[in-house]
């Protein structure tokens, strides 16, 4: 009985089809079928009910999946323990949203390289919802995303890392106008609605009954902010205080009542066997955080003060 066959069984059970398991495990469909047939021959019981069109585990199959999960978890723990030895080593497949890739993550990776040279981190970019799905599917070990917004995979745990506040950005020539007036008279530069932060913005616009005239939709806070500052419209985005200071001159109005906050978190599967590695990443992010980064005090989160 091979560990590969057990991993194939668990992957089919989690994702519902032989084809999906083949994709996730980088196997051919025939190899997946062979793994299951070999298991059934060795155990001398059918693991799937083949009288149905959909993949359905038999009672024996359900028991086999539960035991296989325990065996695989024990093996992964043993492999990590032996690999770690006196110093931390291994490989972590990490997803990250663009904001983190552009600012905080590079410094953290340099810190990890200096302190744990045997720990190798592969980085993949994407939007929060996509990265969450990849963590759930086992394609990624962890991901740095916006705090989950329903609906999202319930099998994921998230650890807070830092917070950004939401701002409406516009040209300084429009100073003196309220947010409803700006949105009524200027094109709306929308933060991508597929992103979790974009959903937060859309929900708050609806809650306040604010109408917009959409001009464009992008997944880049900095690009939207610079376009708004140059007079192309009004953007509503989450940004860190130090990022705001680097923008061209612009007016900034707090968005939300109270001001909305985007919490950035570390997402992991509840059954992850790589938490000791992702914990190092969290330590590195904290070590590299500047004095303006990290969670904001509650009194600042609801500050009604206008930006410059």
Automatic annotation (TrEMBL):
It holds the Pfam family LysR_substrate. One of its GO terms (molecular function) is DNA-binding transcription factor activity. Residues 1-58 form the HTH lysR-type domain. InterPro entries: LysR_HTH_N, LysR_subst-bd, WH-like_DNA-bd_sf, WH_DNA-bd_sf. Keywords: DNA-binding, Transcription, Transcription regulation. Signal peptide: none annotated. Residues 288-308 are annotated as: Disordered. Transmembrane segments: none annotated. SUPFAM superfamilies: Periplasmic binding protein-like II, Winged helix' DNA-binding domain. Belongs to the LysR transcriptional regulatory family. This is LysR family transcriptional regulator. It comes from Pseudomonas taiwanensis.
């Amino acid at each position: 009985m091979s560990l590969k066959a057990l991993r194939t069984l668990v992957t089919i059970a989690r994702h519902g089809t032989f084809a999906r398991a083949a994709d996730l495990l980088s196997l051919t469909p025939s190899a997946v079928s062979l793994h299951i047939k070999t298991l059934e021959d060795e155990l001398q019981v059918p693991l799937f009910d083949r009288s149905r069109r959909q993949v359905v585990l038999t009672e024996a199959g359900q028991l086999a999946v539960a035991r296989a999960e325990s065996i695989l978890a024990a093996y992964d723990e043993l492999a990590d323990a032996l690999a770690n030895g006196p110093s931390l080593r291994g490989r972590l497949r990490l997803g990250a949203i663009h904001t983190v890739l552009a600012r905080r993550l590079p410094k953290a990776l340099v810190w990890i390289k200096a302190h744990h040279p045997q720990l190798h981190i592969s980085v993949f970019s994407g939007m929060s919802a996509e990265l969450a799905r990849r963590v759930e599917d086992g394609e990624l070990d962890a991901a740095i995303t916006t705090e989950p917004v329903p609906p999202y995979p319930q099998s994921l745990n998230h650890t807070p890392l830092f917070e950004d506040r939401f701002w409406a950005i516009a040209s300084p020539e429009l100073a003196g106008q309220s947010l409803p007036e700006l949105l009524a008279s200027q094109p709306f530069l929308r933060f991508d609605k597929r992103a979790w932060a974009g959903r937060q913005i859309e929900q708050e616009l609806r809650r306040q009954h604010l109408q917009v005239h959409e001009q464009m939709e992008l997944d880049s806070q900095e690009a939207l902010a610079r376009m708004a500052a140059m007079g192309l419209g009004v953007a509503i985005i989450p940004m860190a205080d130090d990022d705001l200071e680097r923008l061209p001159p612009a007016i900034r109005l707090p968005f939300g009542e109270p001001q909305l906050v985007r919490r950035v978190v570390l997402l992991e599967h509840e059954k992850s066997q790589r938490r000791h590695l992702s914990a190092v990443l969290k330590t590195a992010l904290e070590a590299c955080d500047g004095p303006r980064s990290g969670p904001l005090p509650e009194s600042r989160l609801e500050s009604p003060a206008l930006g410059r």
